[in-house]
Amino acid sequence: EAGVAQSPRYKIIEKRQSVAFWCNPISGHATLYWYQQILGQGPKLLIQFQNNGVVDDSQLPKDRFSAERLKGVDSTLKIQPAKLEDSAVYLCASSLALGATGSPLHFGNGTRLTVT
Amino acid sequence: DQQVKQNSPSLSVQEGRISILNCDYTNSMFDYFLWYKKYPAEGPTFLISISSIKDKNEDGRFTVFLNKSAKHLSLHIVPSQPGDSAVYFCAATTTETKLTFGTGTRLQVTL
User: Fold this and answer.
1) A4: nearest Cα among A69, A68, A73, A57
2) Cα–Cα distance between A47 and A33 in angstroms, integer?
3) Cβ(B90)–Cβ(B71) under 8 Å?
4) What is residue A2's predicted lDDT score, i.e. its pLDDT?
5) What is the mean pLDDT of residues A63-72?
6) Is the model's pLDDT at B20 over the cut of 80?
7) What is the tens place of the pLDDT at every residue in B63-98?
8) Could A43 and B44 be called an inter-chain contact, meaning their C-beta atoms sit closer than 8 Å?
9) Which end of chain B has fewer CB atoms < 10 Å from its terminal CB, N or C?
């Protein structure tokens, strides 16, 4: 099966600019996640979708970050305006079922964002 | 508040020997634990998991041990191979809630 697809792989922007990341999950996976991984830290969940509804966005900085999953398939994550501390790898993941106990998460290769 | 901790940022092991990666957690509500492996420039890939009703789960060269009273789990790799060189993340969750990841341990298997 095809894996989780993410684009772009790399992005460099200046602070206060905006940026968007795209994710296409594994076909048939209802649950989609966006994680932020800062260098030297573990991935941190930003937002979790079940189909096209938000399950958990408690750690999403909503003043600057937004995400959508139209039609319950592809998803985009946007940052506007970006700050220096947003420099990180943004990982998209998907799973068949809600919750890691139902089925493991499958991650994409991520987008490395550098904010200068 | 770091609920999942991997106190060893790096580990070096000779090929053929055992690799032991450790993980501690503080949230007693966690009831499912996973290990992910990550190569450079790739996303994490699922390796092995264990439910809190078990104390051991084995899959080939990989075994995860869970000590609930100590809130500690470990991943054993026997025998270690050069291809095992990667960053290993421990993660924990409760039913239908988000995964909480540790900070990772970089394993290097030397020839």
Assistant:
1) A73
2) 6
3) no
4) 80
5) 92
6) yes
7) 999 999 999 999 999 999 999 999 999 999 987 668
8) yes
9) N
Q: Which residue of B has its CA nearest to A95?
A: B46
- Identify the band that residue A89 occupies on the pLDDT scale cut at 50, 70 and 90: very high
Please state, in angstroms and rounded to a whole number, the distance separating the CA atoms of residues A59 and A54: 12
| A6-31: pLDDT as tens digits | 999 999 999 999 999 999 999 999 99
Is it the case that residue B24 has pLDDT exceeding 90? Answer: yes
Show Cβ contacts of residue A68 under 8 Å, excluding neighbours closer than 6 positions. A75, A76
Residues B6, A37: Cα–Cα separation, whole Å: 16
Q: Residue B84 and residue B74: Cα distance in Å, rounded? A: 16
Q: Residue written as tokens 């054993």?
A: B76
Number of helices (H), then strands (E), belonging to chain A: the values are 0, 11
Supply the pLDDT for residue B96.
Answer: 64
All residues of chain B having their beta carbon less than 8 Å from the beta carbon of residue A56 are: 97-98
Record: contact B97-A99, CB cut-off 8 A: yes
Residues of A in contact with B46 (CB under 8 A): 104-106
* Interchain contact, B98 vs A56, CB within 8 Å: yes
Chain A and chain B share a number of CB contacts under 8 A equal to 57
Chain B residue numbers touching A40 (CB-CB < 8 A): 103
